[in-house]
Amino acid sequence: MHLIQILTNDTHITVDPHTLVTATPITELTAKRPQLQPILDRFGLDTCCGGHLTVTEACVEQGLDAATVATALLDVLEAHSTD
Q1: What is d(CA 14, CA 27) in angstroms, rounded to the nearest whole number?
Q2: Which terminus of the chain has a smaller tally of CB atoms within 10 A, N or C?
Q3: Per-residue pLDDT tens for 38-61?
Q4: φ, ψ at 48 (rounded to 5°)
């Protein structure tokens, strides 16, 4: 598993990618990582009005398997981390 470092002003925060994609509100996630937008769209997750929800919350609301969505998002993050 890889860790992602997020720069916040002068502070480095290391975040487990799974936590990032499951615990971060969708609007914040897509603002920081726009490459995730197509995946969220593919699963029909609301990135506008429902964007205040986390991926996990949105999946529960839509009846989706959160693990499947998280895996798809993590695959994209992994692919972009090697660029």
Answers
A1: 20
A2: C
A3: 999 999 998 888 789 999 999 999
A4: -115, -95
